[in-house]
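[job 4417] fold queue: 2 targets
>>> target A
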Amino acid sequence: MKGMHCVVTGATSGIGKEIARGLVEAGAHLLFICRDRARGEATLAELGQGGPPTALRMLVADLSVLDDVRRVADEVHSQLPRVDVLVNNAGTHDLHPEVSADGFDRMIATNHLGPFLLTNLLTDLLERGAPARIVWVASESHRSVLHMDPYHFAEPGSYGPIGSLSVYARSKLLNVLVTQEIARRWTPQGITANAFCPGLVSTGLTRNIPMGSTLFSLAERTPLVRSAAQGAEQALRLAGDPSFTTRSGGFYSTVPGAALLPPALHRYRTGLQHAVWERSAELVGI
């Protein structure tokens, strides 16, 4: 991947940092987007040791805030000639509902609407990088969504720690549906998109899962829970493996036995995928 221009969101910890590390070690020029400037500068210092100063850059934005996304997209345009790989990794799991600056459920805004807008605003740079790749960090939890209303998925609601699991799963299903819609819409422009589940990974996100810290602390020394570096492996494969140059619209899981399960029924519903795309575009103003 030497000389490729890569953009990664949420690269200051966990899987995102390991994805960023792997791209830098593979010779890519990396621009990462983070919400916390101090943590971003620490990541710059950690990953940039010994490399050329232009090979690693940072931008700050809260992906739940659409104006922030528009601003940072403009900044990406000013700094990069093209985008060869975009990794949509940033995400959150809120135990209780919060409302984003634009009036949406903050978990849906962070995990879906913000990345959706960013991806669309970077389409021209991805076209310049063709064959270009988009990688979405999704989750096996998308299988648990039995009903998806394509018109009312972003409104703030009322839920507690247990109910938050279903909202998180909805956001991950939205990632998968958008991945498949991109495969249909943008393949002629030389842009592919694939999603993956990194498996059970011991990262900061587990702090927001009901009893997550306790359960993961008990299991993280067993084969059930993977390290952040292991969780990043599939993302790096989707980003750089030549065998994925033209493969698009897939969902790849590292959960043991998941390959034996049939795809979630929603993945066959092209009408739902189209409707989610159109409604998402309406909500973010494109």
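>>> target B
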Amino acid sequence: MLRVAIRLAAVVPILAGGMGALLGASFLGGDASVAIDSHLRYLSGLLLGLGLLALWCAADLPRRGGAFTILCGVVALGGTARLLGLMLAGLPPWPHLLALAMELGVTPALWLWWRATLGKGAAIQ
């Protein structure tokens, strides 16, 4: 069930990252400068990569647990940056709040589930 949950969760960054890479700033429903659009596409490509990495980890969690740990840490770090933005700049639109829930809720929960079932004593490799 854990592998299925990880694969389902990976759909979110794969779709959002793919759409952001293809559509740029228009994916978020707004206009942006070429610089902002370029940066959004770059970050969307990274998001797509994180989703694909999650799928790769889910295929063999006992052996790829170290990579899964790093992946979860990177996602949580991004969520922490998003939370900082919320505190400093105000409440973002609801899709960003859902992303925050994935980053600081779902991802750590999946990591804790992995740690409790498969990751006992696993070292980062």
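[job 4417] complete. Note on B: The chain has a mean pLDDT of 92.
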